[in-house]
Every structure is written in structure tokens, then in C-alpha cells.
Amino acid sequence: MNDNPVSLPHYLRDFTRLFPDFVHTSPWELCSTIQAVLTERIKHLSSDYHIHDDVAIHKSARIEDHVVLKGPLIVSEGCFLGAHAYLRGGVYLGERVSIGPGCEIKSSYVLPGSALAHFNFLGDSVVGSGVNLEAGSIVCNHFNERADKKIFVIVNGKKVDTGSIKFGALIGDDTRIGANAVLSPGTLLEPKSIVKRLELVEQDKNA
User: How far apart are CA 35 and CA 87, in angstroms?
Assistant: First the structure.
């Protein structure tokens, strides 16, 4: 979508290399179409991946016991998934991504070298490279408490309607998110952002 107000390459240094056909797509559209995107990509993966139905796992990935993997899903080279992690709704993990025990990820992209420590929830989001989410931090994807559940993002001081009721965050490269922090739906974080422990990020405060 050429009128997309959010430049993904600005936030994500590896995005153009990994998803060149989608550089003009909004992050919320990217998440809403992730199942179709990954289903097509799986068809063209190399023999370095074990592929069963719509789940593709690189042969070098390490996966502990009791992990639940629901496709379409791509787990890239050198990834680690800790016990009881739960991936669903379309998930892409770039190279050397680490997902700790008890994490849940839904309809999201996690780019190379990023880590979710443990007991994190990440919903309908795009996470850049080299990002770290400390234990218990949550990326919310839905306004359960609002009568009008439409999600807006703030771009250059202006509200932009995503047209969606399910979108979490766009998290720029090398961002650090502290333990038990919460990102509200529609959060956009510049590269190298720091979110303090227990902090609530709520960029659109209008109920």
C-alpha cells in the first residue's frame, strides 16, 4: 500500500532483505495477512528446513519439550524455543531468535537476533532486530476495555486509523523493554527505544 504512513525500513534494518515485496505495506496489514505470506514462503524454503504441513523449522533450531507450534510458522536458523512456548496464528522467527519458556506469540514477525525472555505475550506485532523483551512484558493487541475498539497509531503527531481492531506494536531495532512493561495496542517504538520496567506505553490515550 503506497500511501502507508509508516516506513518499515526506518524501523527495521533487516526488513528489506527479508521481505522485499512488502516494504510499502503497513505493519498492521502485514500482521493481518501473515498467514498467507508465510504459507507462500514455506513453499520456497530450502532443504535446510524440516517442513510438516505448514510448520517449517530450520534443522539448526533448538526446541525444548512441550512447545506448541501451530502453522503457518517459520522458525529460522539458530533459533531457540523454550519449554511451553505457544506460537499460533502465523508466526515468523528470523535467524537466532530466542523465545523463552512460557511465551505466547500470535500473528507476529520477530526479526533476527531478538529475544523474548519468558512469560511474554506478543500479539499482531512486528519486532525489529536485536530487540529484547524482559520477563513478563506484554504487547497487547486489542482494546478490550473500549466501546470503540478501532486501533489508531500516532505518526508525526497525527492519529492514523489502522482500520483494524487487532494490532499490537511496531518495535524498532535494538529496543529494550523492561520486565512487566505493557505496550498498548497501536504502539510505535523508534529504534533503540527504552521502555522501563513496569511502564505502560499508551500513545493513543483517547478512549
Answer: 13
**Position of cell 537466532?**
96
Is residue 94 over pLDDT 90? yes
How far apart CA 7 and CA 23 sit, in angstroms, is 8
Superfamily of domain 8-150+172-201: Hexapeptide repeat proteins (2.160.10.10)
CA 15 – CA 21 distance, rounded (Å): 10
Q: Which grid cell is 184? A: 498498548
- Amino acid identity at 177: I
Task: Determine which one of 10, 24, 118, 142 is catalytic.
Answer: 118
Domain locations in the chain as residue ranges: 8-150+172-201
Known catalytic membership, residue 58: no
Cβ atoms of residues 87 and 72 within 8 Å: no
pTM to 2 decimal places: 0.97
* 28 has a pLDDT exceeding 60: yes
